[in-house]
């Protein structure tokens, strides 16, 4: 049996959901961002975590800057990724403020060169980026595979944040894709079945 190449399908979906995000009314986006933020911080797993692992959002992504500020204000450690040049791997660095960031890979804000790199993430809560998520918790990333590698060895709580307009009924996924444990949109927060590589 010949396996279908899902890469063209994923690329078409990426363009679709990027367009939805780019054309979203700024005021509506801010309201949705605020609603998602409130749902995330209401999760017991977030409240009890000592460490927030998160991406640093760009203009078309669900805002994480407010979440980082909240984490600092409640005494949590904040950890964000830094791409390792010439690879598809990331280091995860602890930062103390937004001043510890600089524009790097794909113009995304990342920790500066002298950042403190962590290899263990005890009692942590990880916000996972995605252009789209499906209702099983599988994600449509940007196609570089950075987070797939990290998620396959991370054992903390994983949460996908997404606008409801960017949900997909069932995304194509491969054997290395790992579903998130929680899905949060501006309309709901949902605990999913235990994440799996199957």
From TrEMBL:
<dbReference type="Pfam" id="PF01812">
    <property type="entry name" value="5-FTHF_cyc-lig"/>
</dbReference>
<comment type="similarity">
    <text>Belongs to the 5-formyltetrahydrofolate cyclo-ligase family.</text>
</comment>
<dbReference type="InterPro" id="IPR024185">
    <property type="entry name" value="FTHF_cligase-like_sf"/>
</dbReference>
<keyword id="KW-0436">Ligase</keyword>
<dbReference type="InterPro" id="IPR002698">
    <property type="entry name" value="FTHF_cligase"/>
</dbReference>
<keyword id="KW-0479">Metal-binding</keyword>
<protein>
    <recommendedName>
        <fullName>5-formyltetrahydrofolate cyclo-ligase</fullName>
        <ecNumber>6.3.3.2</ecNumber>
    </recommendedName>
</protein>
<keyword id="KW-0460">Magnesium</keyword>
<keyword id="KW-0547">Nucleotide-binding</keyword>
<keyword id="KW-0067">ATP-binding</keyword>
<dbReference type="GO" id="GO:0030272">
    <property type="term" value="F:5-formyltetrahydrofolate cyclo-ligase activity"/>
</dbReference>
<dbReference type="InterPro" id="IPR037171">
    <property type="entry name" value="NagB/RpiA_transferase-like"/>
</dbReference>
């Amino acid at each position: 049996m010949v396996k279908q190449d899902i890469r063209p399908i994923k690329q078409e979906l990426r363009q679709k959901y990027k367009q939805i995000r780019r054309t979203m009314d700024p005021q509506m986006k801010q309201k949705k961002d605020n609603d998602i933020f409130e749902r995330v911080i209401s999760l017991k797993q977030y409240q009890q975590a000592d460490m927030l692992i998160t991406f640093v959002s760009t203009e078309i992504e669900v805002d994480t800057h407010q979440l980082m500020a909240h984490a600092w204000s409640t005494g949590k450690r904040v950890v964000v990724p830094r791409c390792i040049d010439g690879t598809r791997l990331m280091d995860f660095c602890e930062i103390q403020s937004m001043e510890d960031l600089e524009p790097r890979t794909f113009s995304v804000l990342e920790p500066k060169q002298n950042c403190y790199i962590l290899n263990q993430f005890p009692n942590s809560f990880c916000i996972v980026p995605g252009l789209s998520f499906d209702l099983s918790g599988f994600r449509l990333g940007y196609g570089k595979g950075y987070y797939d590698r990290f998620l396959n060895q991370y054992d903390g709580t994983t949460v996908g944040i997404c606008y409801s307009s960017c949900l997909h009924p069932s995304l194509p996924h491969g054997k290395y894709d790992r579903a998130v444990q929680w899905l949060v949109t501006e309309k709901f927060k949902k605990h999913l079945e235990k994440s799996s590589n199957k």
